[in-house]
Amino acid sequence: MDQGDAGQGDVGQGDRASPAGTGSASGAGSGSGADPGVGALPPASRARRGAVVAALMLAMALAALDSTIVSTAVPQIVGDLGGFSVFSWLFSGYLLAVTVTLPVYGKLSDTFGRKPVLIAGAALFLLGSLLCALAWDMGSLIAFRIVQGLGGGALQGTVQTLAADLYPLKERPKIQSKLSTVWAVSAVAGPGVGGVLVAYADWRWIFLVNLPVGAVALWLIVRFLHEPKREPRARPRVDWAGALAVFACGGVLLTALVQGGVAWPWLSTPSLSLFAAGLALAAVVVLVERRAAEPIIPGWVWRRRTIAAVNLALGALGLLMVAPTVFLPTYAQSVLGLAPVAAGFVLTVWTLSWPVSAALSQHVYRRIGFRNTAMLGMGTASLLLLAFPFLPYPGEAWQPTLLMLLLGGALGLFQLPLIIGVQSTVVWSERGTTTASVLFCRQTGQTVGAALFGAVANGVLAARLGSASDLDSVTRALDSGTGSEPLRRAVADAVHAVYLGAAGAAALAFLVLLVLAPRRFPVITE
Fold first, then answer.
1. Could you say which DSSP state residue 264 is in?
2. How far apart, in whole angstroms, are the C-alpha atoms of residue 486 and residue 479?
3. Mean pLDDT of the chain
4. Which end of the chain is more exposed for a tag (fewer CB within 10 A), N or C?
C-alpha cells in the first residue's frame, strides 16, 4: 500500500489517495474544492438520508421500468392508435432524449446543485407520462415519449451523482447495490406489471402509474434533501449554445445509428446526409465548447486519463450488452424452441447475479484496486462471451442460462468499481459532469452496438440464406411455423457472430483499462 493509503480503509491497494481538491479544479463547490456532499451526516440525520435514498430508488425505478413495461403494451397501443410503421420510435425517441441530455444535466447539477435539477427532471418525466396517457395518435405519443426522455436524462444522471454525494467512498457500494437491485427487479417485474395493466385496465395506465410513484419521490426529495450551502460565487454562466449544439449533434448522429439499416439502407441518401450533418455539428460542438467559459463538455473530461479510460471502457460495455439483451431472446425462441416467458428467463438471470456481484466487488477492489478489479471482471466476461458460439446445436436451455448467470457476475465486478472509482477522483463541483459523461458513453455504446450487431446478424443471414433475408423476417417465419431447419441454423450462426463481436468489445474494454487507465486511481480523500 502506498504511503498515502495508510489508514485509508476505503481505498484499495491499487489506488492513490490525495487530499480533497488537489487533483481537480474547484467550481461550484466550496472554494477549496473540498467535497460538500451529504456523506458526513451526523447520526441524527441518518433517517433523513434514508428518506433521500428511498426517493432516489423510486426515481430510478421510474427510469428502469420504462422500457420493459412499455414494450408489453405495444400490440394494444398500435391496435388503438395505429402507426405500426413508426412504433419503434416509442423506444428510439425516448432513448435519444435521455442520451443527448445527460451531459447537459450533469453540468447543470454541478452549477446549480443536484436538488433543483432532479426536481425539474422528475417533474418533466411525470408531465411526459401524463401527456402519454392522453395521446390521441401515434405521432403525439412519440412526441410525449420524447418529453419523458428529456426528464429521464435528469433522473438517471442526477440519481447516480447524488448516490456518490450521500455516502463516503467506503460506504458507496451500499447505495450502488441498492440502485443495481432496482434495475434487476425492474427487469423482472416490468413485463409482468405491464401485462397485468394491459389485461385488466388499459394501456394508458402504464403511464399513469408513474404519477403516484413520482409524486412520492418528489415529496421526499423536497422534504428531506438539503444540500450544504456553498461559498458564494459570481453568477453562474450557463453554456446554452453548447447545450444546444450537443443536443443537436447527438440527436442527429444517434438518429442515423438507430434508423440506419431499418428505416432506410445504410448507404442511402438519408443515412449519408444524417452522418454528414452529425459530423458537421460535431465540429460546431468543438468550436463552441473551446470558447465557452463554462462548457457543457469540458476538455478535462478527456484529458484526465482515469475519466477518459472509464468513459471508453463503459462505452465498450454498452456495446457488448446489446448481444444478450437484443439477440439472446431471439436465439432462445428460434433455436432452442422456448416459449417467450422461458426465453425471457434465460436473459433475466444475469440481472440476478449482476447486483450481487456488484455488492461484493468492494471486497475485491479494496485489495487490488479499482482498475484491476474491473479488468478481472471484463477478462472473465470476454471468455464467457467467446464461449457462447461453441455451445452445441441446438443445445439445452440451461447452457446459455448458466453463461448469462456467470456473465452478470463478471459485469457486476467490472462496472461498479469503475463508477465508484471515477466518482472518487473528482470533487463535488465536477462529479455531475463526470458521472454524466460515463453514462453518456455507455448509452452511446448501446446505440452503436444495436446498429453494428444488427448489421452483422443480417449480413450473416444474407450470406446463408440469400440477399433478401434479415433477422426479423426469419424469426417471423419461425414463429409462424413455416420455418425450416436451415433457418434455425442460420439464426444460430447470426447470433454466434454477434457474440463474437461482443467478445471483441469486451477485449477492447480490457485493453483500454490495461493501456490507458492509471494503475492507481487518484482517489480524493474525504
1. B
2. 14
3. 82
4. N
